[in-house]
Design goal:
Helix content: 25-40%
Low-confidence stretches: none
CATH superfamily: Glycoside hydrolase/deacetylase
Number of strands: 12
Distance between the termini: 20 Å
Largest sheet: 10 strands, mixed
CATH architecture: Alpha-Beta Barrel
CATH topology: TIM Barrel
Length: 243
Amino acid sequence: MLFRKTKLLNISIHDVCPSNLKNVLALQNLLKENGITRISLLLIPFYHEKETLLDIKSEILELTKDKETILHGYTHMSKDFGKYDYRRIFTNKEAEFLLEDNLSQRLEKGIKMLNNLGISPNGFIAPAWLFRKEVFRLLKEKGFLFTTDRRYIYDLENNKKIFAPVLTFGSRGFVEKLSIFSFDRMYFIVKKLNVVRIAIHPVDIEKPSKIYKLLKVLDYARKEHFQMTNLSHIVKAKNLIKN
């Protein structure tokens, strides 16, 4: 049973697709070597309309065994923001559920492909955490129990949300450098909350400075007695209050 003062930590690996499989496995092994096996995997069914998870069916089935699986868009690809739109810093033409159309069909196609792999996701997270408000309604209609953005975890079933800003690394230019510099510093701010989220991407494994900061924060969290858990378990933890 969870008590009010229990502090929860969710670690998710984003962008699981064929071209990222090698790095995803490396991240999973890194976490396992550090005693962390309870992680969430964000799956992209038809990555950039070039490759599908069906191409690596056996590997996906092995990778996702006993793991929380989350639908992460359908293609993870979109048109670009305008030249002076500040949101360009968050994504490189990957705001699929904010800028593209036919969102219901994209969800249906994504669900179908995961179902064909024997996977039934109960959560959805939009690429770059960017989505239109109508997505809430669509997710509820299709039976999803939760979604997230950069600030909140949304309990779709009970229309509630938990304030839990995500710690993650940027991937380009100044934003990437700033994210590495501030990663552990941001942890000391968000650790005061009931829930801490860490999102890592396949490209992160290629940057030693990111891995150093990640392991540093995980060590801090271990000493703070954070309980590693899934997002679905967090939304079901009735004692968690809106932070």
